[in-house]
Write a structure and sequence with these properties.
This protein is mainly alpha-helical. It has three domains: 80-187, no CATH class; 194-275, no CATH class; 287-350. 65% of the residues lie in helices and 0% in strands. The chain has helices at 3-6, 21-25, 59-112, 126-141, 147-162, 167-185, 195-216, 218-224, 226-240, 248-259, 272-285, 290-303, 308-320, 328-345.
Length: 350
């Protein structure tokens, strides 16, 4: 069979599919130089479809957003400033507390050595004056702290009653102590103040008024209302902490009831019977304290003649007991008072 007879039917023709220019430029058919189909992002600016023009946003619409953004920035800035201020204040308060505490420690050290030098059973004022200076410095650092205040009152009382300071120097210390007591009385209602410090502040304030009473007389302080203030402060201190000065408020209250004149509407609270009850409470609280022994002995001699021998025994125990090292000058004074009282009742060492 010949080749011509093998091919039957119409001859085959090759079809070539061509693309128009519009097809080549359409985004769907666009290709990069490597022949890869390109997305819209690879089109040239002329080949990209035209974007419709956006209308400008009115300022009235943007104004609330701008104001809100400004307010947010202001709040953040204020918050940042507040944090920095609080951090600075915290550091300052920490420093002040540390400095005030250091001054109190130095004052306590000088207070503990207040009787290291004696002159005829009175203390040289050098160390107690150092304590006073340190407590004053602590108050300047933290004027609201009670601890350096009551310790300063205690130190001023010691300088007045137990040192060899001149009368003018003692008067100056007395005025300072009274001013401290009066200043604190005007702003004493602070519920956040430590209970122990309040009790001691009340007690030593009453003592400061008592030192003044020794100079102006009992009747004067009764008429001025100072005696009532002493009584109220000592009573409140007793309620808060009876252990202050090892029964100090009980001793003070006992002597107020035993010695103050009873004036109606002025000192009507004076009760001679309470003097003995308070003295016995103080002795029961701390029978080894020579001050508690002395106060009980005095009240027994004044109010209970039938217990005279008991009072004599208390006085003799005071005289026979060695003064405490931590309260040397105070105990020497109490021992001298006991000797004088024994001499008056006709017995005991002179």
């Amino acid at each position: 069979m010949s080749r011509s007879t093998r091919s039957s039917g119409p001859p085959m023709t090759m079809r070539v599919q061509t693309r128009s220019c519009s097809d080549r430029r359409s985004p769907a058919n666009a290709r990069d130089r490597g022949g890869r189909r390109a997305g819209p992002g690879l089109l040239s600016p002329r080949e990209r479809p035209a974007q419709p023009l956006r209308k400008p946003v009115p300022e009235s619409t943007l104004q609330p957003f701008a104001e809100e953004a400004t307010m947010r920035r202001t709040r953040l800035r204020r918050r940042s400033i507040r944090r920095r201020v609080m951090a600075t204040l915290g550091a300052l308060l920490t420093w002040c507390a540390a400095a005030g505490h250091a001054s109190i420690i130095e004052g306590d050290r000088a207070w503990a050595a207040r009787a290291e030098a004696l002159d005829q059973e009175r203390a040289d004022p050098t160390r107690i004056e150092e304590a006073i200076a340190h407590y004053r410095a602590a108050i300047k650092i933290d004027p609201d702290a009670l601890e350096p205040r009551w310790k300063l009152l205690r130190a001023l009382h010691y300088a007045i009653d137990f040192t060899t300071l001149s009368d003018d120097e003692k008067d100056a210390h007395m005025r300072e102590a009274v001013d401290l007591a009066r200043e604190w009385t005007e702003r004493r209602d602070d519920p956040s103040a430590p209970r122990a410090d309040v009790a001691r502040m009340l007690f030593w304030s009453a003592i400061a008024w008592g030192v003044r009473a020794q100079r102006v007389g009992l009747l004067t302080i009764v008429r001025e209302g100072v005696a009532t203030r002493m009584h109220d402060d000592a009573l409140r201190s007793l309620e808060l902490d009876p252990s202050v000065d090892r029964g100090g408020a009980l001793r003070l209250l006992s002597r107020l009831h035993a010695t103050l004149p009873r004036v109606p509407f002025v000192s009507g609270w004076v009760d001679r019977k309470r003097a003995l009850l308070l003295a016995e409470r103080g002795y029961d609280l701390d029978p080894e304290h020579p001050g508690n022994r002395l106060v009980l002995a005095l009240v027994l001699l004044e109010r209970e003649p039938s217990r005279r021998e008991e009072a004599r025994a208390l006085l003799e125990r005071i005289v026979a007991t060695e003064p405490r090292a931590e309260a040397l000058v105070e105990d020497l004074r109490i021992r001298e008072q006991a000797r004088e009282k024994l001499a008056r009742i006709g017995s005991g060492p002179s």
